[in-house]
Design brief:
This protein has 224 residues and is an alpha/beta fold. It is 38% helix and 17% strand.
Length: 224
C-alpha cells in the first residue's frame, strides 16, 4: 500500500515563542516532544522513499481568504490574525512565523500545502497530489490534534484514504483535550483510522522497507 507522511502545521506560529499560539495563551512548551517525534518520522519517511507532505495554515496578506467568523474568533482568542508580532503578522503567508520550524522544514522534492482552513484538503491541491502519486494510506502527525489534525483526518477518511494518526507526534491546544481527541478516532472499529505511537509506526509501517530481520536495528537507528 503506497503511503505518505503528512505533517500538519509544524510552523513557528504554532510551535515557537511569539507566534499565534503563544499569543493566544497556549502552552507551546508541549510542542517540543511533538517536534522530536515528528523529526523521527520525517527521517524514516525520507529513508523509506515515502511521499512527504508539509502543511501550513495561513492567509493572504490582505486576509481576503480569511472568513469573517474565523477572524472574529482569533480576536476573541487574543491573537488577531494579521496583527503584528515578534515573528511578523500572525498567520499571514510569507511571514517568518508562518514558515516551518527549522528541524522539520521540508527539503527539495517534498510537497508543501498552504491552506487557508483547518483541513488540509480545503481549497488546496492535496487530493490531486496524493492521487497522482497513487497514495492509499496516510500517516498523520502535527498540531493541533483536535483542530487541524482532526479536520484533515476526517476529510481524508471521507475520500477513502486509510489513516494512521501518530498519537505521540500530535498535541492538543489544551492538554486535557489530547486523550479524548485521540479516543474519538478509534471508536466504531476505527472510524477515523488507527492511533499508533511513533515506535509502532517505525516498526509496523516501515518494516517492508527493510525486511523483518532488520526491523529492530532500523528502528533503533531512528530512535529519539
Amino acid at each position: 500500500m503506497n503511503t505518505a507522511l503528512i505533517l500538519i502545521d509544524l510552523q513557528r506560529d504554532f510551535c515557537a515563542p511569539g507566534g499565534y499560539a503563544h499569543r493566544a495563551g497556549l502552552d507551546i512548551s508541549r510542542m517540543a516532544p511533538v517536534l522530536r517525534q515528528a523529526r523521527r518520522l520525517l527521517d524514516a519517511a525520507r529513508q523509506a522513499g515515502w511521499l512527504v507532505v508539509h502543511t501550513r495554515e495561513g492567509h493572504r496578506p490582505d486576509l481576503s481568504d480569511c472568513p469573517p467568523t474565523k477572524l472574529a474568533r482569533s480576536h476573541a482568542a487574543g491573537a488577531p490574525i494579521g496583527s503584528p508580532g515578534p515573528l511578523g503578522r500572525l498567520l499571514v503567508r510569507g511571514e517568518h512565523g508562518h514558515d516551518f520550524v527549522d528541524e522539520v522544514a521540508p527539503i527539495k522534492g517534498e510537497v508543501v500545502i498552504d491552506k487557508p482552513g483547518y483541513g488540509a484538503f480545503h481549497h488546496t491541491r492535496l487530493e490531486h497530489v496524493l492521487n497522482s502519486h497513487g497514495i492509499e494510506r496516510l500517516i498523520v502527525a502535527g498540531v493541533t490534534t483536535e483542530v487541524c489534525v482532526h479536520s484533515t483526518l476526517r476529510e481524508a477518511v471521507d475520500r477513502g484514504y486509510a489513516c494512521v494518526t501518530v498519537g505521540d507526534a500530535t498535541a492538543a491546544s489544551q492538554p486535557e483535550l489530547q486523550a479524548p481527541a485521540l479516543a474519538m478516532i478509534g471508536v466504531e472499529g476505527g472510524i477515523f483510522g488507527q492511533v499508533l505511537r511513533t515506535d509502532q509506526v517505525l516498526t509496523e509501517m516501515l518494516a517492508s522497507q527493510t525486511g523483518n530481520g532488520r526491523v529492530s536495528a532500523w528502528v533503533q537507528a531512528f530512535s529519539g
